[in-house]
Amino acid sequence: MKNISWADVAAAVGKSKEWTTAACLGQMVFTKEQAEKVGALFELPDDAIAWLQIAPYKGSLPTAISTDPLIYRLNEIVSVYGTTIKELIHEEFGDGIMSAIDFSMDISREPDPKGDRVKIVMSGKFLAYKTY
Q1: Whether residue 91 lies in the annotated active site
Q2: Is residue 99 part of a domain?
Q3: Domain residues for 16?
Q4: In terms of Cα–Cα distance, which of 53, 118, 125 is closest to 89?
Q5: What was the pLDDT predicted at 78?
Q6: Average pLDDT by stretches of 10, the chain with 132 residues
């Protein structure tokens, strides 16, 4: 085990820990320079470094709803609060969607005396539906 954190990898690549982790897990594509930096950190062979530069098939979880408890809970949040999120976005912005392409995310620990909390902040560009 190399004892390298995702934050360490992100610092080497020069991107956020969230984007870099997604890229290392096959959900984003690295530039040649970024892939080479990741390859050096993890001592990857050249063919693995080449794979890091190929646009992935995004959203490639093994099942429609993951059985992994953490991912399942995120699905549960959308299942319970999805219509609320949609309604409030439409009220504030109008008919449209939040982009997952022009998007950023920050995951951090929020200290709490009753037990630390997971804080997830997502920010996506609003894209209004066009009329034609």
Answers
A1: no
A2: yes
A3: 6-51
A4: 125
A5: 92
A6: 90 96 93 97 96 87 83 92 94 96 97 98 96 89
Residue 47 CB-density burial (10 A; 0-12 exposed, 13-18 middle, 19+ buried): exposed
The verdict on whether 99 is a catalytic residue reads yes
3-class state of residue 28 by DSSP: coil
Catalytic pick among 5, 99, 104, 123: 99
Residue 57 has what pLDDT?
83
CATH code at position 91: 3.30.1160.10
The total domain count for the chain is 2
Same domain for 74 and 36: no
d(CA 19, CA 10): 8
In a domain, 89, yes or no: yes
